[in-house]
Amino acid sequence: MEKSTKSFIHAATVTAVTASAVIASSPVEASESSNVADFVKRANQSAGLLKDYYDLTKWDKIVISKGFLNAYNKAENDIKRAEKAVREFKGSNKNMLIAQLEIAKSNQLKAARLIDAINMEKELNAYVNRLQKYIKAETINDDMVEAYYDLSDQMKKAERVFSKVYGEKNREIIRGKFLIEPKIMKESVIYEVSSYTLQNEIAQQLEEDKIQEAKENYKKLERLERRAIAIKEAGNKIHKGKYPELKGMTNILNESKNRLQNGFVIQIDAKSTEQANPTVYGTKEITTVKKDLVITSSEGTYLELKNLNVEGDILIKTANGSAGQVKLTNVNAKGIVKVEEVVEKPVNGAKILANPSFIQLIIGGGSKIPILNLHVGAQVSAENHAVIGNLIINTLKSNEVISLNGDLFLTKVTVQGQGAEVRLGSYVSIREMILKANTIINAANGAKLNLLLTESEKAPSNITLKGDLSLAHVIIRNSNAVINIAEGTVVKKIEKDPSVTGEIKIDNKGSVEEAVGIEIPNNTAPPLSSGGSDATPTIGSLVVSAEDDNTSDDKTVIAVNGAAESGNEFVYKVFENMTDANAGKPVLNADVSSWSPLPSNGIITAPNGKIVVVVERNATDKKAKKVGQTTTVTEDSTNNAAFTIAAYNGDNNILEISGLINIEADSNFDLKKLTYSNAEVPLALHTLAGNYKVAASLSEVNSAGKYFYNSGTLRVILTDDDAEAVESLSGFGHIDSLTAFEGWNSDFESNQAKEISNIDVTVTPE
Fold first, then answer.
1. For residue 116, which of 17, 188, 397, 622 sits 20 to 30 Å off, Cα-Cα?
2. Three-state SS for 130?
C-alpha cells in the first residue's frame, strides 16, 4: 500500500505542473494554450524516441535503418508543427512552451548530426576508391597526387562532422568505422606523394638556377626515403599487409630522382690526348659555377679547369683506377674536390689494366681547395701559391699509392681508411701529416716534412718510415701502431706524447737523431734523449705551430703546445732559413737573454716562410730549457671585392670604381692592376681608412694623387699630369670595356678575390 500511495502522489504532482502550463486568463486563451501545449508535447515525445537510435553501442551495424529514418522524419514534422503553433501563440506562457520545444529540437539535432556522420561514409568512399585505383595500378602522377590531397581534404571535412556527434563513445565508434581505412591508405603512400611533390619542387628550383635551395631539398628527399621504410615496417606490424611496398611507384620515383641528380651537375669528359692542347673548361674571365662538376678522366687524356669559382663539389672519376692528367688553374672551390674510382666493364673484350696509370692531379697557382679527398691512387702536385686546406687520403684499398709533390706547406695531410703508401717527392714541402691507418711514408731525398703525428685508430696497425725524413718531427700519440724505420732512413726526432701510457713498439733499422720520452732500439746514431739517468742532459722539446694573423698582412700567430713551467717564459727569434735556424738553436742552459719575449697572444711580425725558433727560458737567469721551431705563415689579406662599373671624369680628374662589395673599411685594398685595351695599369697597395690617402702613381704617371672610399665606391683623384697620362693610354675611348686582369685584387701571394666582374669605363672629356 505504501508504494501505491507514493505513485499516486507523484502522478498528482505531474498533473499539477501540466495544468499550470495551460492556466489562462480567459476560456479562449485557455483553449489556445492547451492546443499549443499538445503540439509541444507530441514534438517532445517524437524527439524523445530518437534517443534509442543515437546510442551506437546498441547498434549491430552503423547504418541508417528505416525505423530510425521514419522516427526522425516524424519528430522533424512534429517539431515544425509545434514551432508554427508556438510562433503564432500570444499567451502569457509562450516562453515556457518555447523552452519545452527546445528540448525536443536538441534531441532532434543529436540525431541529425549522427545521420550526417553516417551519410559521410558515401562521400569518403568515393575519394577512397579514386585513390585506390592509382595505388592498385602503382601509378604516381599529378592526377594521383591530386586524388591524395582531395582525400585528405575530405577526411578533414569528415572529421569536422564527426566531432559534432553526440557522446564521446559515439564519436569514437564513428571515427573507427569511417576514418581508419582512409588514414591507413593515406599513410601507405605518404612517402611516395611527398617524394613526388618534393621532386617537382627541386626540378623547378634547378630550372630557376636556385641550386642551394635545390640541394637542401634533395637532402630532405633522401631523409624521406629512410623514413618511408620505417613507416611501412611499423604500419604493417599493426595493420598487416596494409602498407604495400609499391615497387612500381618506387621505380618511377627512382627514375625521376636520377634525372634530378643530373640537374645538379655539369658533366665534363676529358677528350684531348695532347698535353699541349688539353680539354679546357673555363674562359679567360672568372666564371661562377653553382653546380657540382663531374669530370671523367681516362688514361692518356688531359683536361684543365681554369678561372672558376665553383660553389659546389668537384668530382673526378677514374675508370678502373686508371686516369689521365687533370689540372686546376685559378680554381676557387667552395666544396670538396674528390677523386674516386668508377668500376666499368671492359669494352669489346678489353682487359682491365693490371698496372693502371694513377691520375695526375695538378693544383695550379691561384687555386684554393678547402678539402681534397683521395679515394684512389693519385699523383698530386701543388704549384706555388696553390692552397689546399685539407688533403685526406681515404683509400678503399690498402695497396694504393699516393705521390705528393710541390708546395703543400699550408696543407693538413691525413691518412685514414684502408691506409696507403705515401710517396713524398724531392720538392714537396708539408708542414703536418696525421697517420690514422696503416701507412708507408717513402720520402725522396730533399723532401720536407716538418711534423708527423701517429694516431692510428685501430690496433695493431703498422707505420713504416722510409727515406729522407731528416726534417721530420714524429710525435707518437697512441700505442696502436708498430713503428718500422727502414734501413737507410734518417728521422730527425721521435717523441712520445706524455699522455701515451701503453708500450710503443719500434723496429728500427735506420737512424733517429733525437728521441724524447722513448728509447730507439738498434739506433746507428745514438740519439739525444730526454730521459734516463745515464743520458747526457739535453735541451727539452717544444711543439710549436704558426698560422696567419687574419687581421694583418705582415704578422703570424705563434702557438706553443702547453704552458711554460713555473718561473719560465717563452722567447723567440726569426731566422731566414732552416740552416740558419739549426745553427742558431741554443743548447741546454745557453744564454738567450737577447731573444725577444713571445707576446701572450702569439702575434709577431715576420715575413712568410721564415723559421721561428721558440725557447722556453728561465725568467731570472735567461737560460734556455726547451726549444722548438715552426715556419711562419703570413698572408696578405684578401679583399673579397667585386665591382660593377668604373668611370673616369676628366673634369675633376677622378677615376671612380663603383659597386664594390665585401670591403671593410679597415681592410687592405690591393688595386694592383687592371687591364685596359691589353695594357696593364698597375695601382699600388692602399689602406682604406675612410679619409684621403696618398696613392702611389700609375704606370706612365709620375705624380701622386689621392683617393677615398665610401659606401661601395672607390675614387682615385688624379693630378692634371696623371689625368693626361690616363687619357693618352692607347685605345682609351669615350665608352669602352675595362676588365679585371687575372690577378686583379690579388697581392704578391696571389690571394684572389672571391668575385671579379667586368666593368665599363665611361670617359667624360674636359
1. 188
2. helix
Q: Which amino acid is present at 243?
A: Y
Contact present, 556 and 547 (Cβ < 8 Å):
yes
Cβ(449)–Cβ(474) under 8 Å? no
- Helix, strand, coil share (%) of the chain residues, nearest 5: 30, 30, 35
Specify the 3-state DSSP secondary structure of 748: coil
Q: Can the peptide bond before residue 460 be classed as cis, meaning omega within 30 degrees of 0?
A: yes
DSSP letters spanning 419-442 = -EEEEEPTT-EEEEEEE-S-EEEE
Q: Are 722 and 695 in contact (CB under 8 A)?
A: no
| pLDDT tens string 626-646 | 988 888 887 654 333 333 344
Q: Is 325 helix (H, G, I), strand (E, B) or coil?
A: strand
Q: Are 365 and 383 in contact (CB under 8 A)?
A: yes
- How far from the centroid of its chain's Cα atoms is residue 700's Cα? 49
Q: At what angle do helices 66-88 and 27-49 cross, to 10 degrees?
A: 160
Task: Assess contact for 674 and 681: CB atoms under 8 A.
Answer: yes
Distance CA 723, CA 287 (A): 33
Q: Which residues pair with 618 in a beta bridge?
A: 568
pTM above 0.85, yes or no: no
Residue range 689-701, pLDDT digits in tens = 233 222 332 233 3
- For the CA atoms of 356, 280, 402, 513, the dihedral, rounded to the nearest 10 degrees, stands at 140
Question: What does the DSSP assignment read for 633-696?
Answer: ---PPP------EEEEETTTTEEEEE---S--TTSEE---EEEETTEEEE---EE--SS-EEEP
332 Rama class: left (phi>0) / alpha (psi -120 to 50) / beta:
beta
